[in-house]
Amino acid sequence: MMDLFHSTSEWWEWVRDRFQSFFQDASRAVAQKKKSKFRRLLSGLQQLYKLELRGWGVADDLEETRKGLAEHFREESREIIFHTRTENLEKDEKCNLFFFTKPNSAHTQLVELRYSEGTPQSGKEHAMRVVTYFYCELYSPKSSEKSQVRSFHEGILETLTPEKREGLNTPFTLEELHLARMTSKRGKTPGSDGLPVELYA
Q1: pLDDT, tens digit only, all 201 positions of the chain
Q2: What is the 3-state secondary structure (H, E, C) of the chain?
């Protein structure tokens, strides 16, 4: 075989390209197979939910389908972690938290915090009081004048059509929840329930 090439390096380039093409095609085939399996599981889950709402006894099938989806998501998470570690190792980096987060800019240290009226507070304990006060105020119920609320509602000219209302009242699908989980940014302030997005990752 090597007689067909002018040099060993030329032969190696040919072999390397063939190997690369082979593994790329194999990876695409595996990815397509996983995607098809996920769609089948998702479609099956939706159909089973509909049957359950109609009173059919599909509890065992539902549980089996949920397990299949859970295993799919676990495998997907393992692959993401593996590829991240591989990329870091190829760049001669250690697989620690620093290289997973890769901060792009230096963080400025806070020296003091201020209450809403402007009173400065320094020191860890005082700063924690300011932060606690801020979030307690932020998430505390706000009182509104009924006349202002009524005036605001009267100013709304456009309303939802019955079709749009029905669409908004439709339960979330598993695919929508998965998409929301995968596209949510990490390291953000939690909502009113106090649960960060990392809890669902």
Answers
A1: 556 767 777 777 888 888 888 888 888 888 888 888 888 888 888 888 888 888 888 888 888 888 888 888 888 777 766 665 555 554 555 545 544 455 444 555 666 777 777 777 777 777 778 888 887 877 777 777 777 778 877 777 777 888 888 888 888 888 888 888 888 888 887 777 777 887 776
A2: CHHHCCCHHHHHHHHHHHHHHHHHHHHHHHHHHHHHHHHHHHHHHHHHHHHHHCCCCCHHHHHHHHHHHHHHHHHHHHHHHHHHHHHHHHCCCCCCHHHHHCCCCCCCCCCEEECCCCCEEECHHHHHHHHHHHHHHHHCCCCCCHHHHHHHHHCCCCCCCHHHHHHHCCCCCHHHHHHHHHHCCCCCCCCCCCCCHHHHC
